[in-house]
Amino acid sequence: MLKKAKQKILIVDDSEMNRALLIDMLEDDFDIIEAENGVQAIKIIHTESISPDLMLLDIVMPEMNGFEVLATMNQCGIINDIPVIMISAENDSSCIERAYEMGVTDYISRPFNVAVVRRRVMNTLALHAKQKRLIRIITEQVYEKEKNNNMMVNILSHIVEFRNGESGLHCRNIFSITNILLQCLVRKTDKYNLTSKDISLITIASALHDIGKISIPENILNKPGRFTPEEFEIMKTHTTAGAALLDELPIYRDEPLVKLAHDICRWHHERYDGRGYPDGLKGEEIPISAQIVALADVYDALTSERCYKKAFSHEKAFNMIQNGECGQFSPLLLECLTDTHAAVIEELQCHSNEKIEEKQLQNLVDELIQLNEADDFITPIMQMEREFEKAKFFMMKAEELQFDYNCRTSVAVISEWGAEFLGIGKTTLNLSEKDAHILQSESVQNFIRQLKGTSPENPETEGIIQLEIKGVKMCGKITAKTIWSDDKTSGYTGVIGKLSDVKKIS
Asked: Per the count of CB atoms within 10 A, which of 114, 279, 287, 452 is most buried?
């Protein structure tokens, strides 16, 4: 059986005797790395093959003192990866306060007690490991929910694509072209003050640019020939219809994603010279999000086959846009298209080479359409807010039995720490079947009745609860929050919470 590798501790102190004392008390359990001053310490922590798990840092040293080491670690962001315990004879309260402000995890004054140093080192490493594990869990959960959210937005946009007789690639192409143009734009100018979050939201919202087409009669939407003037006027209403759909959301219309989607829906057919529709906006009156999606939409429409036209080559489409044959665009955005044209072609060709399971996607779209409820169409936009609320709740503490219960499935997911503490070897519990015994105690039933007294306005409650798992009785403080659907009259849909100060009862 392979031995578990020892964790590495970097001891930074200009006194050889101080280093020797610390090494003597820690070397049996840890691999020790030494540095005589701050300069050596910084060089070591930047050496990838060494990668210390913890630093013991003195303050007063030649060349670079302890505070200068902390400042450098903060500048590089390393302070978040390597916990630091400062060990120093400097007992002035201002020194100690400054050390904590600069990110140290603990401060030990000299002369120190051997047992105290060992215990604080162990506690710091254990806490840091738990924090990293919890952050990883939360990051994975948020990533998974974000991926599912994007998938649902794309499915929603595909409803329009399939109804419009398009290839199924249009949404993905718009997504990619929009992202490429945005990345180029922020490199060229800070005029629009776009953050990475703005870029992500605009890119996601771009998938909803044609959602208003669900209101257009199919005989017009899929007409193979040219529109009559009357038909074109009807087709143009998809811009205002899409914006109105988002405007009429009862709660979420003020969310950043919905606001961006609204602007894109309404104004992605406006043109820089004021000759677009529906409002004839001109120049920078058009939101930059709508300007970029407009350019992406035209480019993909030109290079894609439609029921009324063959696909143009990428070169032909590029020249038509640059020559103003598809309306006027911002000169700055045309520069971005010129700079990124090769990347755009490569990305779209990758999409066209991938086989899309259109039949499977069509079935899923059909199921969504059959739901015939407006709330089901906007769920992807609302879902992330709820997941972030859960994530923030779970981030409050690491060493707790945390849970997330789904009323619809009767499944509870508990934290890894909780599973380890209970000794059950799993983090998913089915409370309607084999794990139902957990709910049988009078204490648990009383708390369930307490949950039923919560409301959307007052969703949180707490109390003392007793459990019995595998014959072991325990009690602790339970804090819970009920999660409610938009239809608040039908009751809560789930419960998130934590069990803290858990003690086993003999």
From this structure: 287
| pTM higher than 0.70 | no
Domains along the chain?
8-112 (3.40.50.2300), 147-378 (1.10.3210.10), 396-505 (3.30.450.20)
The pLDDT tens digits for 9-19 are 999 999 999 89
Outline where DSSP puts E strands in 353-471: 401-406, 411-414, 428-430, 460-469
Q: Indicate the burial class of 376 (C-beta count within 10 angstroms; 0-12, 13-18, 19 or more).
A: middle
C-beta separation of 475 from 466 below 8 A: yes
**329 touches 338 (CB < 8 A):** no
pLDDT per position as a tens digit, 309-335: 788 999 999 999 999 999 999 999 999
Q: Which tokens in the block code for residue 257? A: 């994603």
CA pair distance 84, 29, nearest whole angstrom: 18
For helices 238-247 and 256-267, the axis angle rounded to 10 degrees is: 160
Rounded CA-CA distance 208/212 in Å is 9
d(CA 293, CA 228): 26
* Res 318: pLDDT: 95
Helix/strand/coil for 473: strand
Count of beta carbons in the 10 Å neighbourhood of residue 30: 21
Residues ≥6 apart with Cβ < 8 Å to 27: none
State residue 476 phi and psi, 5-degree precision.
Answer: -175, 175
What values do phi and psi take at 75, rounded to 5?
Answer: -60, -35
Q: In this structure, what are the phi and psi dihedrals at residue 479, rounded to the nearest 5 degrees? A: -125, 130
